[in-house]
Specification:
single chain; 306 residues; alpha/beta; TIM Barrel; Non-ribosomal Peptide Synthetase Peptidyl Carrier Protein, Chain A; 2 domains; eight-stranded parallel beta barrel; 12 helices; 9 strands; 41% helix; globular
């Protein structure tokens, strides 16, 4: 079994914000966290409508800040800002498949198609900071271009310290089963990502030569998932966790934005429980924080603080 410090929480857009990371830390104090991806343009311009542009990471333990973009200079500038904010390492997104990032912005997974630009970005970011740099990528653009190893070699030459490899191509998105290749002989450590949910999955990744594992969608509605896999503490009353998470979201975003943002989390937490469907329908109509707390308390049989 891998050591706990070789477990990573994946950077999930719209999910792994500061409130979510706070809840994860309750169960996995030593786990490696990665922020949701941060636009280098938005960060450098300090756009006010994006709270994560102003996060202070100094009290968050071992946390990497993930940036995306296609502008070499801005990526370097963004890395410096995040280093000054307390990030322990910088992660470069080279795998996001969504069109607004991978095609229209020329960033994310698009960098798997432009290895020259990818190399220039990696070298610029490595030179810009004194902390480690990693990348997160996929097997390739599509089934005809599974060239992850070439990108790993470029990363190693650029001074990148480790790579997270998602076991799907950009074309596959998040569909189908992840196919994690054997990575033995890679020049730098590789972290496995994709469909890792159990201790058996972790053991299988070790056999394939991976230095660690990154858990993503299995964390939805279960921020204690890594603790569960490693034999740590899991909650006795999920409702209490849901309420603490909601309070953290409201503190961070404010009630007007926070309540709608939290609805998806409430749905994930309730997944598989009796009457979860009716609960989700009711929650999706709620805009008041106290009303949402009451509904959560009723569903899980706990008491909300107001």
């Amino acid at each position: 079994m891998l050591e706990k410090n070789n477990f990573f929480v994946a950077p999930l857009a719209g999910i792994t914000d500061k409130p979510f990371r706070t809840i994860v830390r309750e169960f996995s104090p030593d786990v490696n966290l990665v922020t949701e991806m941060i636009s280098c343009h938005s960060l450098v311009a300090q756009h006010k409508n994006c709270p994560r542009n102003f996060d202070d990471y100094r009290a968050e333990g071992n946390i990497g800040a993930q940036i995306f973009g296609a502008d070499v200079g801005l990526m370097a500038d963004a890395a410096r800002i995040l280093q000054d904010a307390g990030a322990k390492w910088i992660d470069i997104n080279m795998g996001c498949p969504v069109p607004k990032v991978a095609t229209r912005a020329g960033a994310g997974a698009h960098l798997m198609r432009d290895h020259k630009l990818a190399g220039n970005i990696m070298r610029a970011v490595v030179r810009a900071v004194d902390i480690p740099v990693s990348i997160k990528t996929r097997l390739g653009w599509d089934a005809a271009h599974v060239d992850w190893r070439e990108l790993v070699d470029i990363a190693a030459d650029a001074g990148v310290k480790f790579v997270t490899l998602h076991g799907r191509t950009r074309a596959a998105g998040y569909t189908g089963a992840a196919e994690n290749p054997d990575v033995g002989g890679a020049p730098i450590p590789i972290i496995a990502n994709g469909d890792i949910k159990t201790a058996r999955d972790v053991e299988n990744m070790e056999k394939l030569g991976y230095a660690g594992v990154m858990i993503g969608r299995a964390m939805l509605g279960a921020p204690w998932k890594i603790a569960e896999i490693t034999g740590g503490r899991v909650p006795e009353n999920i409702g209490e966790i849901v309420l603490r998470h909601l309070d953290a979201v409201i503190d961070y975003y404010g009630e007007r934005s926070g309540v709608p943002l939290f609805r998806k989390h409430a749905a994930w937490y309730s997944s598989g429980m009796p009457d979860a469907g009716a609960f989700r329908v009711a929650v999706n109509q709620i805009t008041d924080a106290n009303e949402l707390k009451d509904k959560i308390s009723e569903f899980w049989g706990c008491v909300a603080k107001k």
